[in-house]
């Protein structure tokens, strides 16, 4: 297994967590802090986070694919990434942005946690 895999998984999990914090916590803070309210509504933050997720996810999938194809990792990772991108860039889905972001981030995080746990279980 590739020595960069734990770093990729950690980065992906951290980025997905950051997405969730942006999507869920900033609106709550926005009610009390004006700057947080501006950041909660800033579409560019969501788009940047989604764009950063593309190379991390694709490299993790490519490295995973090179060692052993596991649909249980690749499918939720690609679906999660697709949902994040749709929420950030498809204006017609604006009303569902929070749902799509939370679902996409949860799928991506779950895929990377699954891979991380399975890697540690197979090396033990």
The rounded Rg comes to 15 Å
Low-confidence stretches are none
- Helix tally? 5
Any idea how many domains?
A: 1
Mean pLDDT metric: 78
What is the H/E string?
A: HHHHH
> What is the first-to-last residue Cα distance?
13 Å
Based on secondary structure, the structural category is mainly alpha
Task: Name the features.
124 residues; elongated
What does this protein structure show overall?
The protein is mostly helical and 124 residues long. It has one domain. The protein is 85% helix and 0% strand. It is built from five helices and no strands. It has helices spanning 5-30, 34-41, 43-67, 71-89, 97-123. Helix 1 (5-30) runs antiparallel to helix 3 (43-67) and helix 4 packs antiparallel against helix 5 (97-123). It is elongated, with a radius of gyration of 15 Å.
Summarize the structure.
The protein is an all-alpha fold. It contains five helices and no strands.
Layout of SSEs?
Blueprint: H1 5-30, H2 34-41, H3 43-67, H4 71-89, H5 97-123
Helix pairs in contact: 1-2, 1-3, 1-5, 3-4, 4-5
